[in-house]
Amino acid sequence: MKRLLCAAIALVCAATLQAQEEEKDVTKFLGIPVDGYKPAMIEKLKAKGFTPTTWDKNVLEGEFNGTDVNVYIVTNNNKVYRIGVMDKIGQDETNIRIRFNRLCQQFRNNPKYKTFKTEEEQTIPDNEDLSYEISVHDKR
């Protein structure tokens, strides 16, 4: 009976350690884990050079990937779970396609990221009508 109890305790400890180890695989934005609370995330982004906008102190502005952007920190139950990056200046369909395809290429060329789709499945083809896909097929 003691052996069975010791084996069960060892199994629970191993599972707990594995769960803690998986927590380390948190998505990062500019090297900052997308985790924790919003005020701490704002301070970390300020340290990277982002500044609060004049119209909302919770929205930061700065440069990302060579473009002036606004950065939105999205929370759920006060915990950060997503970072939204939006161009400060709107873009037309051609520029959206080019920038999206360039991002796909950057991810594909970076060994830190795994791709499960072919390049053709990820990128936006030149002949795709983005306005139609957004309005009719609800693509985002």
In short, what is this structure?
This protein is 44% helix and 22% strand. By secondary structure, the chain is of the alpha+beta class. It is globular, with a radius of gyration of 21 Å.
Description:
By secondary structure, this protein is α+β, with helices and mostly antiparallel strands. It has two domains: 27-90, no CATH class; 91-140. 44% of the residues lie in helices and 22% in strands. It has helices at 2-23, 38-47, 93-109, 119-122, 130-137; strands at residues 28-29, 32-33, 51-52, 59-64, 67-76, 79-87. The longest helix is centred in the first third of the chain and has 22 residues, at 2-23.
Secondary structure elements and pairings:
Blueprint: H1 2-23, E1 28-29, E2 32-33, H2 38-47, E3 51-52, E4 59-64, E5 67-76, E6 79-87, H3 93-109, H4 119-122, H5 130-137
Antiparallel strand pairs: 1-2, 3-4, 4-5, 5-6
Q: Number of DSSP helices?
A: 5
Strand content: 15-25%
The end-to-end span amounts to 58 Å
- Largest beta sheet: what is the strand line-up? 3-4-5-6
SS class? alpha+beta
Number of strands: 6
What proportion of the residues is helical, as a percent range? 40-55%
Low-confidence stretches: none
Supply the number of structural domains: 2
Oligomer: single chain
Please provide the ordered H/E string of secondary-structure elements: HEEHEEEEHHH
Keywords:
single chain, 140 residues, alpha+beta, 2 domains, two-stranded antiparallel sheet
